Amino acid sequence: MINYLTVKDQLSGLYTIRKDGAELARGNYLNGKRVGNWYFFSYNKELALRYNYDSGKILFADEKLLAAAAVKVYTDTESVRDRASVPVPVFSIQQYYYLATAAATAEVPEKDLKYLDKENVVIVAHISSTAEVTYEVRYILKGGKQQTRTFQLDKGAFKIDWIPSTADGKTYDSDFFFLTRLSATQGNQEGHKRFSWY
Predict the structure, then answer these.
(1) Taking a C-beta distance cutoff of 8 angstroms, is the pair 41, 25 a contact?
(2) Model pTM?
(3) What residue spans of 86-162 are helical by DSSP H?
């Protein structure tokens, strides 16, 4: 359930996302733009991320954020690659994984879901240096044929913003990817999700 206020057809005021009585996200809009502190929570109601839109800074991030995904930064300079920050979704990482897995599953043909290697599915977010993002799912069918399908994640009322990879004051194109499992049903009412953490 999403609650929000509008003034002259623009989001203004408190914006919250709740599921099964638990708050998943909370922040404020002003004239259609996110402002101030935004809070994102995991399914067990713990703070996962706090981001300040005014300063453009992460004020708190769950340590699983870095451990759960792999990152590739596009630069020819190895020292920049080593120092560059990871791109970060401005969202609970747990919820991002769930939403991305569900959106990817919807793009994979049903016939492929029956024959793919369910343990080796990779979801990739391609984040540009200007924080534009595209998504794809990569999987291997039995017999070794690799498939790649693009999908959209921001079809709903809430667009997930991304913080691009940076080093020495410069932003870089990057990939943020994680292994997951696809199945016809993703998760259950208690919030246990069918994906692997890597």
Answers:
(1) yes
(2) 0.87
(3) 93-107, 110-115
